[in-house]
Amino acid sequence: MAPLFHVLMAILVIVIAARSVGALFARLGQPPVIGEMIAGLLLGPSFFGQVAPAAAAFVLPQQVLPSLGMLAQIGVVLFMFLVGLELDTSELRKHRRASLMISGFSVLLPFVLGIGLAVFLHSRFASAGTARLPFVLFIGAAMSVTAFPVLARIVRDSGLAKEPIGVLALACAAIDDVSAWCLLAFATSAADGSLGSALATVVMTAALVGMTVLVGRPLLLKAVASLEQSGEPIGRSAVAYALIALLLMAMLAEGIGIHAVFGAFLAGLVVPHDSKLALALQEKLEDVVMIVFLPPFFAFSGMRTQLGLVAGLEPWLWTIALIAVASLGKVGGTVTAARFTGYSWRDSTSLGLLMNTRGAVGLVVLNIGLDLKILSPTVFAMMVLMAVTTTFATPPILKWVRRAPG
User: Fold this and answer.
1) How many domains does the chain divide into?
2) Helix (H, G, I), strand (E, B), or coil: what is residue 289?
3) Which has more confidence, 344 or 175?
């Protein structure tokens, strides 16, 4: 059969599986995106490939992987652009003191603990020739990530969207995302083990961010103000210009050596959150990205996740250690800072649980590490389990905590 037939069939099966498992998880009180992540893992060699190898080889043959991978990469670029669009940076100013302190602790503690654990992981599970510096930095950065889109949906579904703790969680997650991606940019730039190269990349990244904020954003604000004053709906030309800017930013970030998703995230971040342009872009892109583009990314991640590599007592103990350290760092750092700024134990714990969601953004980060050969397939599988487990555990534990006395 023609290659296009297999690619289309693979996408069809992936979308159906993602929607079905996502709907099931929604009935269980979980955000559908978590079910879509699980669906991607189920379609991989660890489940579908074991239960029905012939069917898996027909539906998801190896020859579709390059096409599926490219579709997944484009999907992730568009997804991170939407993540940037969703971030309301005005909330950061309203809760500046608390959000800066809480997010600082919630990034720093898991980053430091992750580095400490990664030192031991490197000698046991890193691929031969993988330098220690990028490995430990990358593990630390992956531990520091908070998945803003999943957190936002949990906040909304749990009725916290209009409560102070929900607004604060969104503000902290916004800072977390920016901070974690900056740490990730440094980690990826150190992939060749050269500190000089890493510093050069950081300087170029800082220049890209500076030009975007100091030059690009003022020009964008003028254009957005003109669109607002015109009273006309956002037309195809405005959307086209926004997508051209997105592609340019993604291309520059990729050229610098950090990753296209950082540029996409930055491109979305500078667009005013509640502007007509941002709302139009979300309306036009979100359904297509979330239904057609993102599930192939989850499936592509699942096809690269070989849970069979996490075999035996020692790998599973290290996986449990990763989950424990990631949770301790995120929840512990958040709770400590929230209590210091005057929040109750219940609100502080709720905030810590929300910040511990890594979700789809966590998978984006881990796939970057695998692509750059910083993470070995074994460490990748262990980290995927960590990201899925910490995200999956948040909604039920949060419900229990919110029912407890304040």
Assistant:
1) 1
2) helix
3) 344
Mean pLDDT of 99-110: 87
**How far is 153 from 83, CA to CA, in rounded Å?**
12
Q: Residue 83: name the closest of 209, 170, 206 by CA.
A: 170
Taking 3-state DSSP, the helix, strand and coil percentages for the chain, each rounded to the nearest 5, stand at: 80, 0, 20
* Token output for 394: 């948040």
CA distance 76 to 128: 29
pTM summary value = 0.79
- Both tokens of residue 292? 């057609």
CA distances in angstroms from 377 to 304, 310, 372, listed in the order given: 8, 10, 12
Q: Based on the number of CB atoms within 10 Å of its own CB, is 65 exposed (0-12), middle (13-18) or buried (19 or more)? A: middle
Q: Which residue has the higher pLDDT, 171 or 283?
A: 283
Mean pLDDT of 272-277: 82
pLDDT for the residue 318? 94
- Alpha-carbon distance of 357 to 52, in angstroms, equals 32
- Look up the CATH number of the domain holding residue 204: 1.20.1530.20
How would you class 205 by CB atoms within 10 Å of its CB: exposed for 0-12, middle for 13-18, buried for 19 or more? buried
Distance CA 330, CA 321 (A): 14
Range 212-222 average pLDDT: 85
In this structure, is the dihedral angle defined by the CA atoms of residues 170, 174, 175 and 180, taken in order, positive or negative? positive
- The H-or-E segment that residue 206 falls in is helix 195-211
Query: Can you give the length of the chain in residues?
Result: 406
Domain that holds residue 280: 3-403
Q: 340 near 102, Cβ under 8 Å?
A: no
Token digits of residue 141 = 């950065």
